[in-house]
Specification:
The complex is a heterodimer of chains A (about 500) and B (about 120).
Chain A lengths: L1 E7 H11 L8 E10 L3 E10 L6 E4 L1 E4 L1 H14 L2 E7 L10 H18 L3 E6 L5 E9 L2 E6 L2 E5 L3 E5 L14 H7 L1 H9 L1 E5 L3 H13 L3 E5 L24 H12 L6 E5 L6 H7 L4 E4 L4 H13 L4 E10 L5 E11 L6 H4 L4 H8 L6 H6 L13 H20 L5 H4 L1 E5 L4 E5 L17 H6 L8 H17 L3 H14 L9
Parallel strand pairs in A: 1-3, 1-10, 6-7, 12-13, 12-15, 13-14, 15-16
Antiparallel strand pairs in A: 2-3, 2-6, 4-5, 7-8, 8-9, 10-11, 16-17, 17-18, 18-19
Helix pairs in contact in A: 4-5, 6-7, 6-13
Chain B lengths: L1 H11 L3 E4 L4 E8 L9 E7 L13 E3 L17 E3 L2 E6 L14 H15 L1
Antiparallel strand pairs in B: 1-2, 2-3, 3-4, 4-6, 5-6
The chains are: A alpha/beta (about 500), B alpha+beta (about 120).
Chain lengths: ~500, ~120
């Protein structure tokens, strides 16, 4: 298990004002958090700062809190069902280790906090440059043991992160990164490379995103998709060939990423589940940033809640093609945008509708009779796509991703989402906000609690399971017929009029 | 959680609710108050998403079926899907339009159901 903290930018600003004093002394405060539990990572979502009132703490070179402060915080935590974080500042920059007195202070309050709230105490230290360190104190065999958070993420229009270098060492920069590094500097490149990026949907768009990230040096990529390569994917999927038909998309892309990744210690994790399935959902929660490259409403809804409830920015995109009655292309539009607190959510943006989500959950989108009964111009029937559009959309999503890391001139917020209109050649930006009825933004940072209140995932999606079962059947059948499959592949190539020349 | 919330909302509106398997809820003796089928008494069934009130049910299932199953037409007065509850049931695939912009309550949903039966069929 790894550990992490996510702090919305709004709370980070409050904390910096409180803890980074003008007189240069250390200071302290408490805050409240909720858990977000992934498959392999436990995160604290720190969403409420409990500012000390007069007399609750003393500052005299070091800082100390009085019992009434902790009592008040305990009361609040119990009332809201939240965990407690104890935060203090140091007088130097960078990631901060703990002094002896720091450890004693956190160990002293750990039992009371655990007993009262059921959650471990989270300790955090702020450096003068805004860098954070964090640790959980977990009870093991009667004692409390410290577990460092490997990263502290600040979630806002810009994405800022402090890594614990002893857990996630800074990358070495190789010749391969020369041009990329020179575009935005070593600090950005280092953070980019160490960020765990998840790609949900590795079809025509997701495969391009994956390729770009691996070449840019991202060390840790997670691919989430239950689907397999079909022949009708081959005109758009940049990694798939005829021999990959019926193979999991994740495996095909992972194989390619292993060949082209530019960093040392490249790691790709594949997950053959949908993000609307429990395991796929939990795997997504292990990521720092997610690309939404799906084309169905239900996974989009899940990703929307991950972005706002679990504080994991999601970069979503979509393509819409309109044809005339004669079948000619009339218009093609695609948009890319970041879903994160402070920005419009996918539901309010119209990227999915509750009606379509409930249709999908009822199994209707996979019911051929239902699909056949829809009007010919129904939006659910629009599945046209072209490789050039997919590549362009992937590029737009990647640009949105980079605006979060680079935040050029601090103007990320005003950039908004991108919306490109193929017919007119116009690129718009979209800076709208959520509507007043938005339910998703009511639970920003609620993490596990919100996901328990609104059950958005299933243990196994029947459509996804039938795909997995099909692959398994195929593996069992073909275990002893590999040679026949290779011959089949060659025969298919000749039959389709392709030829290949032997190399010299 | 969604099913419990929806059931509570129906009971607050004085509907006679029974629990079905999984996510199903049934309402006995639903009376259509106006329109072509005014006075008809139906049993209604709803498949409640676990994420209610984020999502609404997809549309009512009814017993008896008010008119034959027919998905070859787009005319709402004739369009009826078959129901997973059995051949005697019918399913009106009529999701609540713009639910995400609405108040998202059971009361509003049932008002929509009344509108469906009274005004659109």
């Amino acid at each position: 298990m790894t550990y992490s903290v996510a702090v919305p930018e709004e709370q980070n600003i409050v904390l910096k004002k409180l803890l980074l004093r003008d007189d240069g002394q250390e200071d302290l405060c408490f805050a409240l958090w909720r858990p977000s539990s992934g498959e392999g990572r436990y995160s604290a979502l720190l969403t409420e700062v409990v500012t000390p009132i007069l007399g609750e703490r003393s500052v005299h070179g070091n800082a100390a809190f009085h019992p009434e402060y902790l009592e008040r915080v305990l009361g609040l935590a119990l009332e809201k069902g939240m965990g407690i974080a104890f935060l203090h500042s140091h007088t130097g920059p960078g990631w901060q280790d703990m002094s002896g007195p720091d450890k004693e202070a956190e160990l002293r309050i750990a039992p009371a906090i655990k007993a009262a709230t059921g959650f471990p105490v989270l300790g955090m230290t702020l450096g003068t440059d805004g860098s954070w360190s964090g640790r959980f104190w977990l009870r093991e065999n009667g004692n409390y043991r410290r577990y460092w958070c490997d990263r502290i993420r600040i979630i806002g229009d810009a994405y800022n992160v402090t890594f614990a270098n002893h857990l996630i060492p800074p990358p070495t920069f190789r010749e391969e990164f020369k041009r990329t590094r020179s575009a935005w500097g070593d600090a950005v490149q280092s953070d980019l490379m160490r960020t765990r990026v998840g790609i949900v949907g590795v079809g025509s768009v997701g495969s391009v995103v994956a390729e770009a990230l691996a070449r840019m040096g991202v060390q840790d990529i997670v691919l989430i998709d239950f689907d397999t390569i079909k022949k009708h994917n081959l005109d758009r999927h940049i990694h798939a060939t005829l021999c990959d038909v019926d193979h999991f998309k994740t495996h095909v892309v992972a194989r390619r990423l292993g060949e082209i990744a530019t960093c040392e210690n490249f790691k790709v994790t594949t997950c053959e589940y949908g993000v609307n399935e429990d395991f796929g959902f939990k795997t997504a929660l292990d990521c720092d940033v997610l690309f939404s490259c799906v084309d169905r409403p239900w996974p989009r809804q899940v990703l929307n809640t991950i972005a706002l409830w679990h504080l994991i920015p999601v970069i979503d995109g979509g393509i819409a093609i309109q044809k005339s009655k004669m079948g000619k292309l009339q218009s093609a539009d695609w948009k890319a945008h970041i879903t994160t607190p402070g920005r419009i959510c996918m539901e309010c943006l119209g990227q999915f509708s509750g009606a379509d989500v409930s249709a999908e959950k009822s199994g209707l989108l996979d019911d051929p009779e239902y699909i056949a009964s829809l009007a010919t111009n129904h939006h659910l029937l629009r599945n046209e796509n072209v490789i050039v559009f997919s590549i362009n959309l992937a590029s737009m999503q990647l640009l949105q991703f980079l605006t979060m890391f680079i935040n050029p001139l601090g103007v990320n917020a005003s950039v908004g989402g991108f919306s490109f209109h193929f017919t007119s050649g116009v690129l718009d930006s979209d800076v709208r906000s959520c509507g007043p009825q938005c339910l998703t933004k009511t639970y920003i940072g609620y993490g596990d609690k919100a996901s328990e209140e609104y059950v958005l995932t299933v243990e196994k999606d029947s459509q996804a399971q039938s795909v997995r079962d099909g692959v398994q059947c195929s593996k069992d059948k073909n275990r002893k017929t590999t040679v026949w499959r290779v011959l089949d592949c060659i025969w298919d190539l000749f039959r389709n009029g392709k030829s290949f020349k032997a190399g010299k | 959680m969604g099913k419990e919330k929806f059931k509570k909302g129906l009971e607050e509106l004085d509907y006679k609710v029974t629990d079905g398997d999984g996510s199903w809820l049934f309402i006995k003796d639903y009376v259509i108050t106006s329109g072509r089928f005014a006075g008809k008494i139906l049993e209604l069934a709803f498949e409640i998403p676990g994420s209610f009130e984020m999502d609404a049910p997809h549309g009512p299932h009814m017993l008896p079926c008010l008119f034959p199953v027919n998905t070859s037409t787009q005319d709402p007065k004739e369009r009826m899907h078959k129901s997973t509850l059995g051949d005697e049931w019918g399913h009106l695939s009529r999701p609540f339009p713009n639910w995400e912009k609405d108040q998202r309550t059971v009361k509003r949903y049932m008002a929509y159901i009344e509108y469906l039966f009274s005004e659109t069929l």
